[in-house]
From TrEMBL:
<dbReference type="Pfam" id="PF02566">
    <property type="entry name" value="OsmC"/>
</dbReference>
<protein>
    <submittedName>
        <fullName>OsmC family protein</fullName>
    </submittedName>
</protein>
<dbReference type="InterPro" id="IPR015946">
    <property type="entry name" value="KH_dom-like_a/b"/>
</dbReference>
<dbReference type="InterPro" id="IPR036102">
    <property type="entry name" value="OsmC/Ohrsf"/>
</dbReference>
<dbReference type="InterPro" id="IPR003718">
    <property type="entry name" value="OsmC/Ohr_fam"/>
</dbReference>
């Protein structure tokens, strides 16, 4: 997998993926586009959500919605890395089994989500969930 990031102007950068997609990033605290750190969070939320939805479907659950809300703590000094990330999954569906939802959410962070596993090697990654 490859990617390229080009400087546009000021602190604005254009990321281009190997698959041909582009996204603007703003290194000025997210004033005009997501910041790189926000992109990391969205990547963790997206990757883990794929696992949760796929896992529920594979388990025969009738999932209709999945919303991942991510909260973080960061260092106060440079480098301002995340020190903790929690992903809270809000899952909806018809007659969802709570034990299955709990297992699928845990498995995402502990076994399957590449982004979360990379982050978890360096910081405290936790999760929570609810059926809404």
């Amino acid at each position: 997998m490859q990617a390229e990031v080009k400087w546009v102007e000021g602190f604005k950068f254009l990321g281009q993926s190997q698959s041909g997609h582009s996204i603007v990033m703003d290194g000025n605290g997210g004033a005009t586009a997501p910041s790189p750190m926000e992109m990391v969070l969205m990547a963790a939320g997206g990757c883990s959500s794929v696992d949760v939805v796929d896992g529920l479907k594979e388990a025969g659950q009738n999932v209709t919605a999945c919303n991942a809300k991510l909260d973080t703590e960061r260092r106060d000094t440079a480098p301002r890395i995340f020190t903790k990330v929690n992903i809270h999954f809000e899952v909806s569906g018809d007659n969802l089994d709570k034990d299955t939802v709990a297992k699928v959410c845990a498995d995402s962070l502990e076994k399957y989500c590449s982004v979360c596993l990379m982050l978890g090697a360096a910081i405290e990654m936790t999760h929570s969930w609810e059926i809404v």
